[in-house]
Amino acid sequence: MKQSTLLIGGETVATTDHAPVTNPSNGEIVGYMPLAQEADLDRAVAAAAEAFRSWSRTSNEERAAACRAIAEKIGEHAEELAQILTREQGKPLNGLGSRFEIGGALAWTRHTAELDLPVEILQDDNKGRVELHRKPIGVVGSITPWNWPVMIACWHIMPAARAGNTVVIKPSPLTPLSTIRLVEIISEVLPPGVVNVIAGENSIGAALSAHPGIAKMTFTGSTETGKKIMASAVATLKRLTLELGGNDAGIVLPDVDPKSIVEGLFWGAFINNGQTCAALKRLYVHDSIYEEVCAALADYAGKIAIGDGLDEASILGPVQNELQFNKVRDLVDDARAKGGRILTGGAPMDRPGYFYPITLVADVDHGVRLVDEEQFGPALPIIRYSDLDEVIARANQNPAGLGGSVWSADVEKAKRYAMQLECGSVWINKHGAIQPNAPFGGVKQSGIGVEFGAEGLKEFTTIQTVLS
Question: Which residues pair with 382 in a beta bridge?
């Protein structure tokens, strides 16, 4: 079984110790993660700092061409990356799974290549000229999660490098292998040290976020970990982009035809088996169509094939890890004990691996953990309401504020209510449909800053005003 290595300054670096990476579908070891020490981290930051001296001076055109070349390389290795991803993450190759994720990584890389931040002329008259320049920050530290490890790595690396920064990335210890391979592929294009990858347990991530040589941290993951990263940034006043947890509300208005929205509702909630920050996690349905929506969702769920990700027939796979599996099970058990009506699923599947079925829980309300907490898995609470203004207020009571949606036959009416939701992104008659040209980020405890598009690229720059 392959022992992966770190990549520092363009060179592979072997480690003394490794940890097994397992397939959540069956528990089989699929590879070994290198366990970096703090000396490896220091070396990676130093390599990135050295590379920054020249990379930050490259032209806009050179960096755009490099991103295009990276996209071509990712395309050449797409199936290889998808196979690694499925084996360590569990998501199926097909459907909205690993091949879909690699396609997303390609799309974001290509779009980022074409972004530009030209000099802004703020004044040019007989009193003088004022120019606003955007300059790279320095060495960017990146910590990525286990749910979309390749695509989110591209979300972090590509705008950072496109803006002239260098990167030290640390993937989740649960899914490190696809990210390590991605960085190896990227490094076939970029100069040594522009992108470096270290790996290890969470302690090396904490050391990265506190490292004095890191000028900016970008992190996607839980709110609790985001708070720790924010605290560790204080000593050096690191810049931050934090995309944190969500508990997205979807609100179904009484004028909608349940059959016309059931597919959108289902995939809004269960894309990647619900293991997505901006998945639909609380569904509020008007009393007049509540039972009809419940029945339509249960019927649709029964048609989805769940199985080993390497089986081409599988549409959804396992929960990625034991901790998350146990959390989903506990939340569903708690909801059942508090009167929740199980429409589908409700108990682990009788097979090896972390398989939990699609679970729909009706007749729950605020005060039940499945509603109040982020489940991050294949379980959806369905909450009955009768007053629209009241349900908007209740949806906003949650401390998270990543995404939200409103479902209605009247799009303009839906927009009016959607604008009242306290979240960074809001969708009409769909949920979680992110795209590379639309800024994405949370409010409240769902994060700081935005990603994607020109606004996301700006997050990797500092402003310098030139007055003459």
Answer: 283, 362
